Amino acid sequence: MKRFLKECYHMFLRIWVAVCRRLPLKKRVLFFSIRADGRLLENAQCVYDALDAEKTVFAHKYPMPSKWRPYIYYLLLTHKVVVTDDYLPYLREVELRDAQRVFQIWHAGGGFKKMGFDVFPEPDNIHAQYDDVIVTAEDCRKFFVTAFRLPIDKIHAYGLPRTDKLLDEKWLEKTREDFFGRHPSLRGKTLYLYCPTFREVGKKRVRFDPQLDFARIDRELSDDEVLLIHMHPTVDYSFVEKPCAHIFDLTKEEDTLTLECVCDLLVTDYSSVIVEGSVLGLPMLFYCPDFDVYERGFYLNYPDDLPGEMFTDGSQFVDRMRDARANRSIEREKEYRRAQTSACDGHATQRVVKVIEDWLRE
């Protein structure tokens, strides 16, 4: 019976898609995100706020209930423009209409760790329906050709919209003042920010052990030093379970951009937060205890092309942070900025909005 009902539902969906394809196509923009529930993340929100057009937001973490499919298909097939910032799984199931356009404002637009088909070769191309894709520099376009199996003329160095505000001094000043208003005890202290990314084995997410003794780190930090932690958005656990005097996990309280704006040093591993770090001109350090077994692979020559040093021994954590702040890799930072984030010039949102507005006028 279950199999019969499933087949009937699939038949209904095929009929429903055919019906939706005949409905009027609205001169409207659908912002579709699988990265958060009920809200757009920074890239999409920047474009949404700047775009003067009729708009719809559909933001829910994937996977979504099967019963939502009719509504999702309806949205996808009745909006002139679809904007997404991550994988859009339903594009495997629905062929859009000829007059529709899809803009992929990819959340990590640099040529850093490998992604898409460069990591998981698959028979069908979930990215095939994109009309335009964002990257952060001309040198990065070639990486997205293989990652998304798209011609290079669909990939453009527009920059990341969320980085525009990082070049606005008034916004930076207000962001910092607001942060220290919420956390007055941190004002005047040296703030180290640790932003590790998620881990996976094959396609399965796994818990990451950073191999750090946080109690020891807490003792080694001076009263003028603080370690702030921000976990990846898809991670639901914390490294620090007991209260510490000099270590604070602000994942649930602050967004990554705000923390990067107030920190004195960014420590990460394989995370795209280095894009914002580069635009902000932050000194950076890369702590990678699992470097020898990390699966993803990289487009750049890791760690030689990084804008900072890489290390693997957690017992050196505090000393390496202090040294990285005092002895910056200025030339490496400049070369990374040129190769990876040169299109992030404060006008990325403007460029994306213009493309969308041109599509709406077609």
List the helices and strands and how they pair.
Elements: H1 2-20, E1 26-33, H2 42-50, E2 55-59, H3 69-78, E3 79-84, E4 101-104, E5 132-134, H4 141-148, E6 155-156, H5 169-182, E7 190-195, E8 199-201, E9 204-206, H6 214-220, E10 225-229, E11 247-249, H7 256-262, E12 265-268, H8 273-280, E13 284-287, E14 308-311, H9 317-326, H10 330-340, H11 348-360
Parallel strand pairs: 1-2, 1-3, 3-4, 4-5, 5-6, 7-10, 7-12, 10-11, 12-13, 13-14
Antiparallel strand pairs: 8-9
- Overall strand count: 14
The CATH architecture of the largest domain can be named as 3-Layer(aba) Sandwich
Structural class: alpha/beta
Radius of gyration: 22 Å
What is the tally of helical segments? 11
So what's the CATH class of the largest domain? Answer: Alpha Beta
Mean pLDDT across every amino acid position: 95
Describe this structure in words.
With 362 residues, this protein is an alpha/beta fold. It folds into 2 domains: 2-162 and 346-360, Rossmann fold; 169-340, Rossmann fold, CATH 3.40.50.12580. The chain is 32% helix and 17% strand. It has helices at 2-20, 42-50, 69-78, 141-148, 169-182, 214-220, 256-262, 273-280, 317-326, 330-340, 348-360, and strands at 26-33, 55-59, 79-84, 101-104, 132-134, 155-156, 190-195, 199-201, 204-206, 225-229, 247-249, 265-268, 284-287, 308-311. The protein has a 6-stranded parallel β-sheet. The protein has a 6-stranded parallel β-sheet with strand order 11-10-7-12-13-14, with helices on both faces.
